[in-house]
Specification:
The structure holds 2 protein chains of 2 kinds.
Chain A: H1 13-20, E1 25-29, E2 35-36, E3 51-55, E4 59-68, E5 82-89, E6 94-97, E7 99-100, E8 113-121, E9 124-131
Parallel strand pairs in A: 7-9
Antiparallel strand pairs in A: 1-2, 1-3, 4-5, 4-8, 5-6, 8-9
Chain B: E1 5-12, H1 23-38, E2 47-51, H2 61-68, E3 75-79, H3 85-98, E4 104-111, H4 119-122, H5 136-151, H6 156-170, H7 183-188, E5 191-194, E6 196-197, E7 207-215, H8 216-221, E8 228-237, H9 253-264, E9 274-275, H10 281-290, H11 299-306, H12 321-324, H13 331-342, E10 354-361, E11 366-373
Parallel strand pairs in B: 2-3, 2-4, 9-10
Antiparallel strand pairs in B: 1-7, 1-8, 4-7, 5-6, 8-11, 10-11
Helix pairs in contact in B: 6-10, 6-11
The chains are: A mainly beta, B alpha/beta.
């Protein structure tokens, strides 16, 4: 079963390359200082086209989260139930991710501190996170309930 | 614009399953019903405004529907705003008529996601699909989760909305889903995308609906006594994807309602009844707060204390809403508001003299508001 693949473009390529090297990068506007993800050509604040990539510390917190009990794509059927969370990095940008937990997804809570845990599946780097209070064991499998 | 335009006729198909029917044919059926309801000649319709179909967006869609109706209107368009589009189109019609671009508009929508293609609701959201981020429901689940965390309310706040809408739908001969539920059954329904339970989520329905808009003056000329005045309308665009919003529990529904209230010369306390876009139970609660009926976090208590049945203090979704009447984007709420104002609704309020209607699209990306009054 084919898993979803990312659409790499000239604009977002540095992000995916950074992630494959274990780094989480975000865009920073040289003109107004705005920081954001996902990658885009123009700063969403000032519409400026001068920005650079910066490396995040990987620290952040959970803004919200959900648990899927239904699979909307065949390749996620055997991962049920799985969580998806919104993480806000301490630098400001937000991203969607999975929280890797050694125990059921109900351990999650809004506001919980997390840190980056890059994982690899079928050659695809994933910017996942783990709870600082509850670090997951060193594995490279996708999160299970 | 207060009271300048009226809704002079309404029409729709049955809601639920229409296997093998083309959505354009459903739209024609709904439009024919609306034209008959208004008792006007089809040839007097000189504006055709259509909400884009979810299941199959296409080019020159407004013109395609006009052709199917056998019309060559002065004004024609298709609008994509998700579920906010119908009220937005009604407001554009009212303003175009006032400016003299046309006299009589039909605003319509139809689709067959139930028996046809509903993949748009389950679609992956770009590159976030690698984390399993699929489906419209998931974005609402994020909002529901954030709301519960922020305001510490129990599941019964959401259950009460589901129970009332399902009860109203059960009493509605036209409803897609006519099975009431109890609070216990709501609580026991399985999680879809937690914290959303199955009964927090609206239906996916085939169906079409249409309304006729004209000036109040034209309706008087034609002797349409039951024409329902449009007192106010407004819009607001949240735009940002859910995960990028500074706050998940407030939206531009607030701006949309503020514009409509201002135009109508009304305040939230003046409103007798509400038809609120219940794609998910959370949207009813956040809309009640965004619209200024009650402070943030208090929507559950407000609805419980006022009562939401037809004869209670704040009746909502009296024909069942998206949770029970039809999982179609919003015109059914407008039509129920019109029927309540005319006095020919199924669960008829004996006291309501105005009705506010909310429409919204995407994952609360777009918002529109309509305030209707009683015929003069």
């Amino acid at each position: 079963m084919n898993s979803p693949v990312v659409d790499v473009s000239p604009v977002n390529k540095p992000y995916w390359e950074g992630l494959s090297n274990g780094e989480l990068l975000y865009q920073h506007c040289s003109h107004c200082g705005n920081d954001w993800l996902p990658a885009r050509e123009h700063c969403p604040n000032c519409l400026g086209a001068n920005h650079n990539w910066q490396r995040s510390t990987g620290h952040g917190h959970i803004v919200s989260w959900v648990v899927y009990h239904v699979a909307y794509h065949e390749s996620f059927k055997d991962k049920l139930p799985y969580n998806v969370a919104i993480v806000e990095l301490e630098e400001g940008p937000r991203l969607l991710t999975n929280i890797v937990t050694p125990s059921p997804a109900t351990d999650l809570c809004i506001g919980a501190d997390v840190r980056l845990r890059v994982e690899y599946e079928d050659g695809q780097a994933l910017a996942r996170f783990e709870l600082k209070s509850f670090p997951a064991p060193p594995q490279r499998e996708p999160p299970r309930s | 614009m207060r009271g300048k335009a009226v809704i002079a006729g309404v029409g729709h198909t049955s809601y639920g399953k229409h296997p093998g029917r083309d959505k354009v044919a459903l739209i024609v059926e709904a439009c024919a019903n609306a034209i008959r309801d208004a008792r006007i000649e089809k040839s007097t319709v000189d504006g055709v405004l259509v909400k884009m179909a979810n299941s199959e967006p296409s080019i020159l869609y407004g013109q395609k529907i006009a052709e199917a109706l056998g019309l060559q209107p002065k004004v024609g368009a298709a609008l994509d705003q998700g579920g906010a589009a119908n009220i937005a189109l009604i407001s554009y019609a009212a303003m175009s008529i006032e400016a003299g671009l046309m006299d009589t508009a039909i605003i319509c929508y139809g689709d067959t996601p139930r028996t046809g293609n509903r993949s748009v609701f389950h679609r992956p959201r770009g590159n976030d699909a690698i984390y399993g981020w699929y489906s419209t429901a998931a974005g609402y689940a994020m909002i529901h989760q954030a709301y519960v965390h922020e305001h510490r309310v129990g599941a019964e706040c959401f259950g009460a909305v589901a129970v009332q809408c399902r009860a109203n739908g059960a009493a509605n001969p036209n409803a897609h889903l006519r099975i009431p539920i109890t609070m216990g059954e709501y609580m026991a329904s399985p999680y879809v995308v937690e914290p959303l339970r199955r009964d927090d989520c609206c239906l996916v329905s085939d169906g079409a609906a249409a309304v006729i808009v004209m000036s109040a003056a034209r309706a008087r000329e034609l002797g349409i006594d039951a024409a329902v005045p449009i007192l106010g309308f407004g819009q607001g665009q949240e735009s940002l994807d859910v995960h990028l919003r500074p706050t998940l529990t407030k939206t531009c529904a607030a701006e949309s309602a503020a514009t409509a209230f201002s135009m109508a010369g009304l305040k939230p306390a003046d409103i007798d009844m509400a038809q609120l876009y219940d794609c998910f139970t959370i949207t009813v609660l956040t809309t009640v707060e965004d619209y200024g009926f009650t402070p943030r976090g208090n929507a559950g208590a407000f609805l419980r204390d006022r009562g939401i049945g037809t004869d209670a203090g704040f009746p909502i979704n009296t024909s069942g809403g998206l949770l029970s009447e039809s999982g179609t984007p919003g015109l059914q709420l407008v039509i129920e508001g019109v029927r309540q104002m005319r006095g020919d609704a199924n669960l008829q309020s004996q006291t309501a003299r105005n009705c506010i209607v909310s429409n919204q699209g995407g994952t609360m990306h777009s918002h529109s508001t309509l305030i209707l009054g009683a015929p003069q």
